[in-house]
Amino acid sequence: MNVVLRAMLAYWILLIAVRLVGRRTASQMAPFDLVVLFLFGGATITSVLGEDHSAVAAYSAVCTIGLNHIAVSWLKLRSPLFGRLVDGTPVVIYENGGWHEKRMRGLRIERSDVMAAIRQSGLQRLEQIAYAVVERDGKVSVIPPGEDKG
């Protein structure tokens, strides 16, 4: 039972830590971002399993983490506020020809990340977009002029 409680605590601590670290997705991560995520997992496993290195303890920890993940998904469906706390909200970082530098600093995203998203969408220059939005999952969406009308 101790392993289950430690796994539950580790899940919530890691969820909060990853949320605080930022939104960069795996495809946009720099090597140091990946190192941080791997270290989170490695540092957590010893606190979860402690001295019990049995298969039952490992299986219990994995099941507990999986059930916590299902619980969080369910709570996000039931509560928009909880969903915003866990996943965040889309953030406009470029509009009307100007950058929102403060928002970008808060998200720890650089202009070069946005330019990469622009190129990946088949465009070449800032003048070709109306908006750039960092989505909840950390990806940058690029909206050309004319498509921004609801």
TrEMBL record:
InterPro entries, A to Z: DUF421 (IPR007353), UPF0702_alpha/beta_dom_sf (IPR023090), YetF_N (IPR048454)
Which Gene3D superfamilies has this protein been placed in?
Answer: bsu07140 like domains
Q: Which domain of life is it from?
A: Bacteria
* Cellular localization per UniProt: Cell membrane
Q: Which residues form the YetF-like N-terminal transmembrane domain?
A: 2-45
The residues covered by the YetF C-terminal domain are: 79-147
- Its membrane topology: Multi-pass membrane protein
Parts of the chain that traverse the membrane = 6-22, 34-50, 56-75
Pfam families given in the database record:
DUF421, YetF_N
For this UniProt record, give its keywords in alphabetical order, as a comma-separated list. Answer: Cell membrane, Membrane, Transmembrane, Transmembrane helix
Family of the protein in this entry: Belongs to the UPF0702 family.
Listed PANTHER family: UPF0702 TRANSMEMBRANE PROTEIN YCAP (PTHR34582)
Name assigned to this protein: DUF421 domain-containing protein
Source organism of the structure:
Endosaccharibacter trunci
